[in-house]
Design a protein that fits this description.
By secondary structure, this protein is an alpha/beta fold. The chain has one domain: Rossmann fold. It contains 13 helices and 8 strands. The radius of gyration is 17 Å and the shape is globular. Keywords: Cell wall biogenesis/degradation, Glycosyltransferase, Teichoic acid biosynthesis, Transferase.
């Protein structure tokens, strides 16, 4: 049993990135009958779970919740939980691609999200950089509810090892949960704006910013329109530190 750190009632397993990769590698090699849902838990999701019972239920039922952001890690340490490191959706996706490419297991990925041009560029970039993995299919993220059935059927036919959903939080989590019994994928996870980064639409913070845990600041400087979303960070820090875990 993996020990967990509770953040506002959400259990985050104390897993490093390497341990998370090992766990998912084992799962994808199994003949599972049900989809394994990975939620990259950021402060926005944790805060929303406090008043959204439906999302909280989805998080509670997930196979794995990772610490998506340094804020989650720092709060856990301040409260004695000591999560070892952050495991973000973008980093996890890239490491999965690297692992699949290196081990030549022909892992397959279905990409759902981003605009059409970015989706295509992301698929092309993955094909060039990781030739030993397969893009089983893709679809942009600007679809209507009426198109859900067509997309679900496309994913079902593709039967990917990994369904990568870049619809933003919590839309990705809700969409995966709604159709999880019909997706015919082994693992599904929301990855925020990762396809925008892989497709070259958004520039990721240089490694020095990442090492300083200031990636959020780099994004805010380069995308000032995000300031409203960033307000969640101080609210989360205060709320989480004052929260009395049951």
């Amino acid at each position: 049993m993996v020990p967990v750190a509770n953040i506002m009632g959400i259990p985050f397993p104390k897993l490093t990135m390497d341990q998370t990769l090992s766990k998912l590698s084992e799962i994808v090699e199994q003949n599972r009958s049900s989809l394994f849902h990975v939620i990259t838990g950021n402060p926005e999701i944790v805060m929303r779970c406090q008043h959204d019972a439906g999302l909280r239920s989805i998080v509670d039922e997930a196979g794995l919740v990772t610490a998506d952001g340094i804020g989650i890690v720092l709060v856990s340490r301040m409260k004695g939980g000591h999560l070892p490191e952050r495991v973000t959706g973008c980093d996890l996706l890239i490491r999965l691609l690297e692992t699949g490419n290196r081990n030549r297991k022909n892992w397959s990925f279905y990409l759902l999200g981003a605009d059409e041009e970015t989706s295509l560029k992301a698929a092309e970039a993955i094909g060039r950089t990781y030739p030993n993995v397969t893009i089983a299919g893709r679809h942009h993220g600007y679809f209507t509810p009426e198109e859900d059935e067509k997309i679900v059927e496309d994913i079902r036919r593709a039967a990917p090892d990994f369904l990568i959903v870049a619809l933003g939080a919590p839309q990705a989590e809700l969409w995966i949960h709604t159709y999880r019994s019909r997706l015919n994928a082994k693992i599904a996870m929301g990855v925020g704006g990762s396809l925008d980064i892989i497709g070259g639409k958004v520039k990721r913070a240089p490694k020095v910013w990442q090492d300083m845990h200031a990636e959020w600041l780099f994004r805010l400087i380069n995308q000032p329109s995000r300031w409203r979303r960033q307000l969640i960070l101080p609210r989360f820090a205060v709320s989480a530190l004052l929260y009395r875990e049951r």
